[in-house]
TrEMBL record:
This is 33 kDa chaperonin. CDD domains: Hsp33 (cd00498). Belongs to the HSP33 family. One of its GO terms (cellular component) is cytoplasm. Signal peptide: none annotated. It comes from Alcaligenes xylosoxydans xylosoxydans (Achromobacter xylosoxidans). Keywords: Chaperone, Cytoplasm, Disulfide bond, Redox-active center, Zinc. Under oxidizing conditions two disulfide bonds are formed involving the reactive cysteines. Under reducing conditions zinc is bound to the reactive cysteines and the protein is inactive. Redox regulated molecular chaperone. Protects both thermally unfolding and oxidatively damaged proteins from irreversible aggregation. Plays an important role in the bacterial defense system toward oxidative stress. The keyword Cytoplasm applies. Disulfide bonds join C243-C245, C276-C279.
Length: 309
């Protein structure tokens, strides 16, 4: 079954509800990687969170969530495009072990220098336009708490998140209080009424447990939590893994290193091995391939899939 994100509004349109439960996409994130359980939990929660947030961006481009740390984990990063295609990776510091019972603070922020970074990167920029980057200290005990802190500090939107991940699923639910505006074609909603709706929605959603989030299909979960509410449902959006790495992109990266450095690697190892940080796909360049990088010609198998060992 295709992984999907589902969106709802409460009847007065003052609260947004979104839920996602990833299976195939999450398995693709983990393919070619052997993550310890603590990384699986943290990265899966960040993947679910990025999907929930990217579903609301208003431009063609990417939302990137990064956690930079000073502990055993140096970096967690997820990029999710506006079409909900995503990729993710982890950087672990060499020589550091990741304990199975490690949490976000112990693995990423033991020295207090951890940062949570959100990047909004439109694909089509006007001249002089830069990607938006928001940075806040890494606060809270979980990915959900860190994101809620960012949302409140950066966007002033009341947001609650429930996230969970194991080896089989990455799942999340978001509720968010929306700005309400009057108008000739809009139902007038008082601040008190909007607050009551928000309080009621958060109370209902707060009964959700992590195991229930991971084990329950979205439709069943939403019905179980909000069965007394009238919800406006939107068309589901498919979610998928997508890594844009190609052999040609890797070749261009090697060209940027320069022939001297590539020749040094070739002399030391007999071939140049490059693995994509995101999908883990290995690319192998032998002496003939490396020579072709700097002669303007390509070997006959230049468009062939990478050699896999």
């Amino acid at each position: 079954m295709t992984d999907q994100l589902k969106k709802y509004l409460l009847e007065d349109r003052s609260v947004r509800v979104q839920a996602v439960r990833l299976t195939d996409t999450w398995k693709a994130v983990q393919a070619n990687h052997d993550y310890p359980p603590a990384i699986t939990h943290l990265l899966g929660e960040l993947v679910a969170a990025s999907t929930l947030l990217a579903a609301n961006i208003k431009f063609d481009g990417s939302l990137v969530l990064q956690i930079q740390g000073d502990g055993p984990i140096a970096l967690l990063v997820v990029e999710c495009r506006s079409d909900l295609s995503l990729r993710a990776t982890v950087k672990v510091r060499e020589g550091h072990e990741v304990p199975a019972d490690g949490d976000m603070q112990s693995l990423l922020n033991p020295g207090g220098n951890g940062r949570f970074i959100v990047v909004l990167d439109p694909q089509h920029k006007v001249p002089g336009q830069q990607a938006y980057q928001g940075i806040v200290p890494l606060e809270g005990e979980t990915v959900a708490e860190a994101l809620q802190h960012y949302m409140k500090a950066s966007e002033q939107l009341d947001t609650r998140l429930w996230l969970g991940a194991d080896a089989d699923h990455a799942a999340g639910m978001l509720i968010q209080r929306l700005p309400h505006h009057g108008g000739s074609d809009a139902t007038t909603l008082s601040e008190q009424a909007a607050t009551e709706t928000w309080d009621r929605a958060t109370a209902l959603a707060s009964t959700l447990k992590r195991d229930e989030l991971l084990a329950t299909e979205i439709d069943t979960l939403i019905h179980r939590l909000f069965w007394e509410e009238t919800l406006v449902a939107f068309d589901p959006q498919p979610v998928r893994w997508h890594c844009p790495c190609t052999r040609e992109r890797v070749a261009n990266m090697l060209r940027s290193l320069g022939q001297v450095e590539v020749d040094d690697i070739l002399a030391e190892r007999g071939q140049v091995d490059v693995a994509c940080d995101f999908c883990g796909k290995p690319y192998v360049f032998d002496a003939v391939d490396c020579a072709a990088l700097f002669t303007g010609s390509q070997p006959a198998n230049g468009d062939a899939p990478p050699t896999v060992h």
